Amino acid sequence: MATETHSATGNGLADAVGVEGHDMATAGPGMPQLDFSTWGNQIFWLLVALVVIYFVLSRVALPRIAAVLAERQGTITNDIARAEDLKRQASEAEAAYEQALKDARAEAQAISQRTRDDIKAQVAEATKEADARIAEKSAEADKAVAEIRASAMGNVEAVAKDTAEALVSALGGSADTAAISKAVDNRMKG
Amino acid sequence: MATEAHGAESGGLVFHPMDQFIVKPLFGDGPVGMFTLTNATLWLALTVLAVAAIMVLGTSRRAIVPTRSQSVGELAYGFVYKMVEDVTGKDGVKYFPYIMTLFMFVVLANFLGLLPMSFATTSHFAVTVILAMAVFLTVTILGFIKNGTAFLGLFWVSSAPLALRPVLAVIELISYFVRPVSHSIRLAGNVMAGHAVIKVFAGFAALAAISPLSIVAISAMYGLEVMVAFIQAYVFTILTCVYLKDALHPGH
Known about the structure:
The complex is a heterodimer of chains A (about 190) and B (about 250). Chain A has one domain. Chain A is about 90% helix and about 0% strand. Chain A is built from three helices and no strands. In chain A, α2 (about 40-170) crosses α3. The longest helix of chain A is centred in the middle third of the chain and has 132 residues, at about 40-170. Chain A is rod-shaped, with a radius of gyration of 67 Å. Chain A starts with a helix and ends with a helix. Chain B has helices at about 1-5, 40-55, 70-90, 95-115, 125-145, 165-205, 210-250. Chain B is globular and about 65 Å long. The N and C termini of chain B lie far apart (about 50 Å). The interface between A and B is large, with 50 and 63 residues.
């Protein structure tokens, strides 16, 4: 296969060279680039093409693109300037906000301090009042306790006399109220 | 087309890599005269249309936020404008439309030449020699107009020792006159070589055994040629800018 290929290649090349040799005799040099009979034609049309391209570019395309680029540059510059302006405004607004926040915080602190003082004063006053009322109440209560104790003593005496009388009569004796009362009194004193 | 011209007498393999460059009339079979409409004419016209499509149609909406086609035009504009400004300086900017014309012509002719069945106008020395000579003559004349005889200072290397200067002047002079030759042959040679190599690979594709390899090789070459198409246009343009800079500021 390989040898076949090689021989075929060889033949092909030989043929090509041979053909080219024949051509050279009939149609000039092997390189069409060096066939000077076509140069006039190519140069003429080349110059036409270049002139057309030059006029299309210099009259229409390049000014247009330059204008578009300049306009874009202008737009970008404007936008950047506006963005900077907005940024400055934003930072000013932020500073104002910070200031307001600081003021508000200070005011809040003052208010809470004042409120705390107020409440402390009120609490102190209320405590004093409550102390006074408690003292009054406890004095009242002491008096009531003394009264109750006194009345309770009287009650005890009466109950003792009654009980003694009832006991005496229950034991079959005749109750002498005065004697019983005297005895009970003695007992209670003792 | 190649087989038509030469017949199928060679059997398996047919190599006519240069046939794609033959200039022939579009209509009829007569000789190629000065004003004959040829395949070269057709593809030059298509190049003009492509330039107009990109630079005029694409930018017709003048959008602040560009569309894709407008971006291509603006990119080309910015690319060449920056190149001119960077290389030649501020005072070279007024020659920007001429350089833009050269760049757009060369780059689009190169790319159109890559279309299958197309004709690569920039593969012809007739085209590139005219472009290079136009640049050479313009730059030389402009150099003398702008600087008078001071333009000859370009060849007199004042930073070199005095004894060396005449020798350097001769070398500089030769290199100056070789410029249009290298300028034109570089472009046409690159384009022609790439197209011819692709055609040679295509000729091998006739053999079933190597046709897959051949197709891979054609694809790879095509990719390379796409790069070459742009790079050669870029090189051609930037060299033009360098020559223009020499004309405007002839000092070393």
